[in-house]
Each structure stands twice: as C-alpha cells, then as structure tokens.
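Handout, page 2. Input:
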Amino acid sequence: VQLQASGGGLVQAGGSLRLSCAAAGSPVSRYAMTWYRQAPGKQRELVAVVSSDGTTNYADSVKGRFTISRDNAKNTVYLQLNSLKPEDTAVYYCKGPRYSDFDSWGQGTLVTVSS
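Output:
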C-alpha cells in the first residue's frame, strides 16, 4: 500500500500545475484523502480534502484557485493548481487519514512559483 505524488515543477506566478497522487494496494475512494504542503521554514498545512462521498474542502488561502478531485478508475487523487502565487511554493504531499492504509507522508512533490 503506497502513495506516489508527482506533477510538481517550476512555474511562473499566474501559471498552473496539476499534481497527481497515485495509489496502490487499496482504493482511495474508501477514505478522505488530503493534500498538504510545507513551505521552507514553515509548518505543514492542510490544502484540500476530498471525502469518500466526494465532498471537498479547502484552506482559505487556496479557495477559488485550487481544485481537488479523485479518479476512482485510476485510483488517483489530483490537485489542480491555478493562478499560482510565489507563496504557494512548497513541497506538496498527499495522505490518507490516521490509521488508514494511506497513513504515511511519502516524498511529496515540489512546487516552485517564481515571481
């Protein structure tokens, strides 16, 4: 059971990226899946959540710019990042709930937004 985050990169302010979190070993549809991020020198913070019933929630700082989604057939969770700002620069992680099959941080994917 594992998660593999990918899709990060270097982008100019105002640009877009799509992050992917590919899961193996257990269906992501079973759990609430969360994207977190950790900027240099800062604590890790919650970015977006998609519940098992498809309900989504976002941090205030990304509402209207980021979209979390899930493709059950591909067993993958996505995070679409639009209108990126330099303050969105961080390592982004996907994770399942505590004690779930996906309760681990993994290596994350780095997003760098230049001004």
